[in-house]
Amino acid sequence: MNWVLILLLAGLLFAMELLLPGGVLGIIAAVLVVVAAIMAIAAEGVWAGLLVLAGGLAAGIAMFTLELKVLSHSQVARWFRHSSVSKGSARPATSAPAELIGQRGVVASDLAPTGSVSIEGRLYTARSQGDFLHRGTEVEVVAQNVFNLVVRPVRQRVN
Questions:
Q1: What one-character-per-residue DSSP string does 80-147 give?
Q2: How far apart are the first and last CA of the chain?
Q3: Are 105 and 114 in contact (CB under 8 A)?
Q4: Phi and psi for 134 in degrees, rounded to 5?
Q5: Which of 3, 26, 51, 155 supports an S-S bond with 36, CB 3.0-4.6 Å?
Q6: Using CA atoms, how far apart are residues 15 and 26, in angstroms rounded to an integer?
Q7: Can you give the pLDDT at residue 106?
Q8: How far apart are CA 128 and CA 121, in angstroms?
Q9: What is the distance between the alpha carbons of residues 22 and 116, in angstroms, rounded to a whole number?
Q10: Strand 114-119 versus strand 138-144 pairing type
Q11: Residues with Cβ < 8 Å from 128, sequence gap 6 or more?
């Protein structure tokens, strides 16, 4: 009859797993179900042990499903979530204004093909149009995408 107490303890741990999610209590409960099944086989026979194992497996799957489906959207789950983790922005850290197109600047770190450029004393992430550009090269902004500026080297005019 001790296997019944172990099985009840496993059920209690499964229920506690719902309130304190994390998996540890669920794993301990699953181990206790297996121990109770082995004890039931020894005391009552194979069919009793298999019935305990099947019932414990069904209870574990039901509790896990309940935890994933219901409790992940409940007030209990909101207590455990940190609000700054769930909120975010896809905006780049240094957004470049659209009026930078046509502006000239200087390569601050080698563009191979990405790096940084300095325009009016401010650093921006930039990508060259395919050329490797060394630090100090004068460039012109030809386009802007979500993450960086697209630049090309300024060609010196020959008079």
A1: HS-HHHH----S-SSPPPGGGTT-EEEEEE-BSSEEEEEETTEEEEEEESS--B-TT-EEEEEEE-SS
A2: 103
A3: no
A4: -80, 160
A5: 3
A6: 9
A7: 94
A8: 19
A9: 43
A10: unpaired
A11: 111, 112, 113, 114, 139, 150, 151, 152, 153
Angle between helices 46-69 and 24-44 (to 10 degrees): 160
Q: Is the pTM of this model over 0.70?
A: no
30: enclosing H helix or E strand: helix 24-44
How far is residue 29's CA from residue 42's CA, in Å, rounded to a whole number? 20
List the chain residues with pLDDT less than 70: 1, 21-22, 70-98, 156-159
Radius of gyration of the chain measured on its C-alpha atoms: 32
C-alpha 93: how far from chain center: 20
What local confidence, expressed as pLDDT, does residue 108 receive? 92
- Whole-angstrom distance, CA of residue 8 vs CA of residue 13: 9
